[in-house]
Specification:
Length: 364
């Protein structure tokens, strides 16, 4: 894709340069037609010397001098060579015009009005100033192209760095998810072996999503909500009757997309710190789509902090979530987590992205 973009840019540059020089070389023809006089080829030949000199100055700077001298901080040499080149070409153009008038146009010096030295100096100065402007134009175009290329490379490097960091965060997230889920299944084995067997089957379905289906940067919101529903059902197997569990998920996802496994850390945290084996407790999970493109995820749970011996992996999921949000939803999310009395409230507000076809997702 980058090669195609570069090829397209080069083609556009060639077309623009060709049109610009063609207009300059054809300008005498246009002006002579406007005056009602046709220009002879002999006279046109004399005009072509100036544009050719301008082209020499432009492309000598564009392809050689700017890269080898100016961009290597040899400014003095760059300026000196250009001054010598411009003076040489200005004098050469004057000599060419004299030669052209005498031997091509057939106008000998004796039949022409005697011109003053200031007259010749004026035309040489005019050509020199024009070539100086052409040099400046060449430098401006070259530096603009270099700046654009450097900025594009910076963006590509930043994009690759971000993707690598996201991949690293995913690689951290998958073992973390598996570790927490296996802990819950381990607790079920002693209490209810049949439920533990069902839980392992459910876990295999969840892992398929975690390991294979979520390789895209964005997933349909419906798939993410289905995963959350299955995860909550799996985690609820070990809950006692003292735990009040409420889950509200929207039926219609409106075709939106969301980053995979974005909400699981909040829900894991609720099951880990919101359930007591001896006291009444609750977990309330709610997802709501507003009238616009905003999704509000609210997780409320009773607060039973774990002791130091049972805090393995604590905080990894939440730190992972914060970093992924900053990379995937910069300026498009609000994450609040606070303890209010004896309950803990976590709320994530996201600006969602519209649905695109899977083929388009895969090509990105």
């Amino acid at each position: 894709m980058q090669t195609t973009q570069r090829s397209r840019t080069k083609v556009i540059q060639v077309i623009v340069h060709t049109i610009a020089w063609a207009m300059m070389f054809c300008s005498p023809l246009f002006f002579s037609q406007g005056e009602g006089n046709s220009i002879s080829w002999a006279r046109y030949l004399g005009f072509c010397a100036s544009p050719l000199a301008f082209m020499l100055v432009f492309y000598l700077n564009y392809f050689v001098l700017i890269d080898r001298l100016l961009f290597r901080k040899r400014l003095g040499t760059f300026v000196l060579i250009n001054l010598l080149l411009i003076i040489l070409l200005a004098v050469g153009l004057h000599g060419w015009h004299e030669f052209h008038r005498t031997y091509v146009m057939g106008i000998p010096p004796s039949s022409r009005p005697r011109a003053r030295t200031q007259f010749y100096l004026f035309f040489m100065l005019r050509d020199a100033v024009t070539m100086l402007l052409v040099t400046g134009l060449s430098v401006a175009i070259k530096m603009t192209g270099r700046w654009y290329r450097v900025e594009r490379e910076k963006q590509e490097i930043e994009k690759e760095r971000t993707q690598a960091e996201l991949q690293n965060l995913k690689s951290q997230l998958n073992p973390h998810f598996l570790f927490n889920t296996l802990n819950n299944i381990y607790a079920l084995v002693a209490l209810n072996p049949q439920q533990a067997q069902y839980a392992l089957h459910s876990l295999s379905q969840l892992l398929r999503y975690v390991l294979y289906d979520n390789n895209q940067q964005m997933m349909p919101l419906s798939k993410e909500l289905a995963f959350i529903r299955s995860y909550v059902e799996l985690m609820s197997l070990r809950l006692s009757k003292q735990v009040q569990l409420e889950v509200n998920l929207p039926e219609d996802d409106r075709g939106y997309q969301v980053a995979p496994l974005l909400f699981i850390a909040l829900i894991e945290n609720a099951f880990k710190h919101g359930v007591s084996a001896t006291e009444p407790s609750f977990i309330h999970i709610s997802f709501a789509l507003t009238g616009g493109d905003t999704l509000i995820c609210t997780v409320e749970n009773s607060c039973f902090p774990k002791n130091e011996l049972d805090r393995s992996g604590s905080g990894i999921g939440l730190e992972n979530l914060r970093r992924r949000l900053s990379l995937l939803y910069p300026g498009q999310h609000i994450l609040r987590m606070e303890k209010i009395g004896e309950q803990y409230v976590a709320q994530l507000i996201l600006t969602l992205k519209p649905h695109v076809q899977d083929s388009e997702i895969g090509s990105k």
